[in-house]
Amino acid sequence: MNMEMNITKITAFIILLVTLNSCELFELDNYKSPNGGIYGKIIDSETNNPIPLPVESSTGVLIQLYEIDTKDTLEVQPINFYANQDGTFTNTKVFNGKYNMLLDGPFVVKDNYPINVNIEGQTEINIMVTPYAHVNATADVNGKEVTISYEIVTTTDTVSFDRVYAYWNYQKLVDSYPNHFVVRERGSKQNGTFTFDLSDDEEFIKNKYKIEANGNRVYFRIGAQVKTKVKKTRITNYSETIEIIIP
What is the CB neighbour count within 10 angstroms for residue 121? Predict the structure, then answer.
C-alpha cells in the first residue's frame, strides 16, 4: 500500500514539473514578433542605379541599425545584416521604431550620416552614395574564348587607382574573396582587356559538370582596387556581374 502511495506521489510530482516547465516555455515563446522591416537600394548618385557590391557575406557590405531613444540597454546592440551584390538590401524582421543606420562599403554616403530611419511596417529606404570608382565592363565571346574589356574611373581625389582584377566563377556570386572566384587575373591599367581561353583552362575543365548543370553559364566580373589617401587602406569597387553562356 505504501509503495502504491509513493508511486502515486512521484507520478504527481513529475506531472507538476512537466506542467511548470511547459508554462515557462510558453512564457519564453510568448514574446512579440518583429512588426516591421526595411528594404531598398544603395544608389550611385551619378548614374542613379544601384551600385555593384561585394557578395552578401561576412566580407560584404555591412548594414547596422541602432535603435534611438531606447531605455532598454539590451537594445543598444545593433541589428546587423548585409547588402546584396546587386546593390539591394532587405531585412523583413525588424521592430517598428526609429533607428540610426550605418553602412560600411566602397563608397561615401551622400545623405546625412548616420542615416535616420523610421520603420513602420515594411519600409523602403534608398541611400544615395558615391562609389570610390566606377567600373564598366563588357564581354566579347568567341567560342570558349572570352575577352573582358573594362574602364575604371576614380570619383574623388581622396583615392588613387592601385590595381585591377578580373574574375570568373561557375556561380553568380563573384568578388575578390577566395570562395567567390575560380580564376583571378591581375592587371595594372585603368583601361584594358583580359582574355580567358576556357577551352584550355584547367579550372573550367575540372568544374565542367557544374557549369553544364547550370546551362553552360559562366560569370565574369572586374574589380578595381583603390588606395585611400587618408586611411591608407585598399578598397575594391566592382563592375556588374556578366553572365556568359559557353557553347
Answer: 8
Distances in Å between the alpha carbon of 246 and those of 141, 145, 208, 242? 8, 9, 11, 12
For the chain, the three-class secondary structure string (H helix, E strand, C coil) is CHHHHHHHHHHHHHHHHHHHHHHHHHHHCCCCCCCEEEEEEEEECCCCCECCCCCCCCCCCEEEEEECCCCCHHHHCCEEEECCCCCEEEEEEECCEEEEEEEECCEEECCCCCEEEEECCEEECCEEEEECEEEEEEEEEECCEEEEEEEEEECCCCEEEEEEEEEEECCCCCCCCHHHCCEEEEECCCEEEEEEEHHHCHHHHHCHHHHHHCCCEEEEEEEEEEEECCCCCEEEEECCCEEEECC
At 112-122, the pLDDT tens digits run 899 999 999 99
Where among 101, 131, 161 does a domain terminate?
Answer: 131
The answer to whether residues 61 and 94 belong to one domain is yes
Instruction: Calculate what percentage of the chain has a pLDDT beyond 90.
Output: 75
Number of Cβ within 10 Å of residue 18's Cβ equals 10
Last residue of a domain, one of 82, 112, 131: 131
* Model confidence, pTM: 0.83
Say yes or no: 121 and 139 in one domain: no
